[in-house]
Specification:
The structure is a homodimer.
Chain A: E1 2-6, H1 10-21, E2 25-29, H2 35-49, E3 64-66, H3 70-74, E4 79-82, H4 88-101, E5 107-110, H5 117-120, E6 128-132, E7 141-145, H6 148-160, E8 164-167, H7 177-193, H8 199-214, H9 219-226, H10 231-239, H11 258-272, H12 277-298, H13 301-311, E9 325-330, H14 345-362, H15 366-370, E10 373-384, E11 393-402, E12 407-415, E13 423-433, E14 438-439, H16 444-458
Parallel strand pairs in A: 1-2, 1-4, 2-3, 4-5, 5-6, 7-8
Antiparallel strand pairs in A: 6-7, 9-11, 10-13, 11-12, 12-13, 13-14
Helix pairs in contact in A: 1-2, 9-10, 12-13
Chain lengths: 473, 473
């Protein structure tokens, strides 16, 4: 599949990275001589952050090319994304060129934050609004507005690259999210202008309070809870009347004078100027990866989107030692020490994921556990053999060393590209009746599959060392 | 220290929990016959969630009492918090009673979301606005407004219970954060009323996009990044003009009719009605704990507040086996399986924290590492002996089994209240020159402290089993 990016700034570059890392080829057209460098920097950020959301490998990266003409970029494209500056005449010109040169069945998306499809298509284009949020490679939301068939097709593609399409029922200036952002922005400008709060204080007022709520539930679900046991109706009864109180200055718009720009830019320098934009981007991305990985635990909001995308990624295969691959993942930034290496604590998380996969392979899966039987880990030994760097891809292979009766004995190797494993993990599990909490032998298909794996793996190179299950010293 | 809660609803109960779990005694006065049950339920949520943010133990919980009169509640109180309904005449009456009965030097805080101190104190009270955010036991933000001396004293107390006081420069209706919330709320009501989006769609527009950004950076720092390399000034130049575009309906206020209430309550039921309020609260809290623990990794925003509070909590002491306590923490909800037990992966995280503390005790701390020397873990063996439940408090003791030359051999026991450990972790570390990446012997104070611990621990009960460092089989 091929995507064409018309415009390669922060947004176009973010789109390019999202498509590339999901296996699409990407062609960029942007007359800016700096476009290639800029897209490259966004892509470097994305490579560092996005793959670490998943506990399966993303597909091999697509090819990235930069084109001299728009026509060359859109040739044969399945998706064309327009991300040029927010001027309607310019968008009209670009969309007319796209219409003339792109395949008839290509989705044509516009990153516009303000214009409606009826405005974009006033001169005969068939674009849909596909409005993303920065950083495009990590935030899943895309607002889709336009023709029902076109937005439906666009939504399917967006889900395929791990995004969350929100199809609007009706077109409206600035769609949905930016109406909220604009409302907050106006109020914030007044607060700064009137000397009530600095930019830094406003940011603290957001991220120390309601920002934490909005990362996982939105406005209405949060307020439903605030209503306590009586729920939404009680909340509305309690806070509805406040609407007419003088809690806003939004009836008016602050004038955008040089003084106001100087005030805001100066306060922002004082607040954040000790970090470069690149450092801020990486801090933001590290935090987003941490938050998204926290949300994937509960499947809430964007965490649910990550899990759904992960289930579509292939798994399996055979590792360099001829054993089955039970995990393939990129080291997420949240696994990393201040010194840039993988901290030792997440090694067990990696190994446990591999054991979980082996459990699925032998049929001791969620249904089996729901039926009252499971494997419990009795002991695990990890050897840290060489350092693992940030961004490394870990491939775990699993050898079933023993599976007699109630015991299951596994040996995982963590491969990161070298000739020998970067770590090994030996683990001894016991088969347990969840009702009595007693150790019992497995039967049926599980016992058979374990025996088959033991036999199949016996002919492969033996573990470098086994120390569990021996008599104590 | 004693705090008096006047009003024991969701907010008063949240304050009570925050104070109690930080070791304060709390007296509640609320004429509602259901107050004791309601506060108890908030407290149960808080006990489950708050302690898991820290990797040290919070102080022993204070005593909670319910009083028949306001006078009894405020007697001897160091902090009095008013959280009664948002009616100025009621607040005046309550504050007058508080002024008459509370100690002269007590801080008097009001949870009001809308009133200014000049309004609250119009009849001679000396209250400050101390406006928190739900859930009060997890979100750190408290907006403080009022007399500089009083808010300064209040801020110190709030930091002591792990909160983030934001002192406003000037009083203003609805303070800062609620001005934003109100702006978003108005815009959301229009979108629902006009049939542009449902409550569920609005929540997705928030939590799939900008909500994820706002959990860690606020509005201005986010936009500074969006400006790309040119920063804030470029962003302002680009988006300033949009201010006059028709991106809002906020020039007007929707009428709060029965139809609008029915529409919103009905959509909210369809969106969230499959979960009880209690289930939603726990999901919210689990997500907040996960997000806050993700943010403590980078020290950003609320994660920095958690770390700063943690550093004030005592550590050390001796465990049931006579060995030094190297970690004392409550199992966070984010460590827990769907079955309510601690998942095996975080065991290593717990043990690594204990090893880190032992490193500090022998002087191999951050300064030592900055000087070019450190211990690297070569191998770790964990035995899982009994299940650990959600909410359990884990006390880790550490025995220094060996410390000859370049090796350091540790044995951790994880205690959860029983007569024997719930888990043990044996770990073998090597002393490394970070420049050459080679194993070298430690010298000076570190070697002496290791030797002293080996000698001191030799007389204590030996580890139940040691298997590392033996010849391979």
């Amino acid at each position: 599949m091929k995507a064409a990016m018309i415009g390669g700034g922060v947004i176009g570059g973010g789109w390019a990275a999202r498509f590339l890392l999901n296996g699409w080829d990407v062609a960029v057209f942007d007359p800016d001589p700096e476009a290639e460098r800029k897209v490259g920097e966004v892509l470097a950020n994305a490579r560092r952050a996005l793959p670490g959301l998943y506990e399966r490998a993303l597909p091999p990266e697509g090819r990235l090319g930069f084109c001299d003409t728009l026509e060359e970029a859109v040739e044969g494209a399945d998706w064309v994304q327009e991300s040029v500056p927010e001027r309607l005449d310019l968008k009209h010109r670009v969309l007319a060129q796209v219409m003339a040169a792109a395949p008839e069945d290509a989705v044509i998306g516009s990153s516009t934050s303000g214009f409606k499809p009826s405005e974009l298509n006033a001169q005969g284009a068939r674009a849909v609004v596909a409005h993303p949020f920065n950083p495009v490679y990590l935030l899943p939301l895309v607002e889709l507005v336009g023709d029902a068939d076109l937005t439906g097709r666009a939504a399917e593609t967006l889900r395929g690259i791990g995004m969350f399409p929100l199809i609007l029922r009706r077109e409206i200036d600035a769609h949905i999210a930016d109406r909220f952002l604009e409302a907050v922005w106006r109020e914030a400008l007044w607060l700064v202008k009137d000397g009530i709060a600095t930019t830094g204080e406003i940011d603290e007022a957001i991220r120390m309070g309601f920002g934490l709520r909005w990362a996982q539930m939105g406005l209405f679900e949060t307020y439903r809870i605030a209503g306590g046991e009586a729920g939404m109706r009680h909340f509305l009864a309690q806070f509805g009347p406040c609407l007419t109180w003088p809690w806003t200055k939004l009836m008016d718009v602050p004038e955008f004078t040089d003084e106001l720009v100087d005030l805001i830019a100066g306060q922002s320098d004082a607040q954040s100027g000790h970090r470069t934009i690149r450092e801020l981007e990486r801090l933001r991305d590290d935090n987003l990866v941490g938050i998204l990985r926290a949300l994937r635990r509960t499947g809430s909001g964007a965490g649910g989107v990550v899990l759904a995308h992960e289930r579509t990624l292939p798994q399996g295969g055979t590792g360099p030692d001829g054993l089955p691959v039970t995990l393939e993942m990129q080291v997420p930034t949240s696994f990393v020490d201040y010194n840039g290496h993988m901290n030792e604590a997440p090694y067990l998380e990696v190994g446990v994921r591999a054991s979980d996969r082996l459990m699925e392979m032998i049929g001791a899966d969620a249904d089996y556990i729901a039926g009252g039987l499971s494997y419990f880990t009795a002991e695990t030994d990890i050897r840290f053999l060489s350092e693992i760097d940030i961004g490394a891809r870990i491939t775990v292979t699993t050898q079933v060393v023993g599976g007699d009766g109630r015991k299951l004995h596994l040996f995982h190797r963590f491969w990161t590209g070298g000739e020998s494993p970067a770590a090994t993990m030996e683990t001894l599990l016991l088969h347990v009746d969840l009702g009595t909490r007693r150790v019992v032998a497995p039967g049926g298909a599980v016992a058979e599959r374990v025996a088959a794996l033991v036999a199949a793996h016996a002919g492969l190179p033996a573990p470098e060392r086994l120390i569990l299950g021996r008599p104590a010293s």
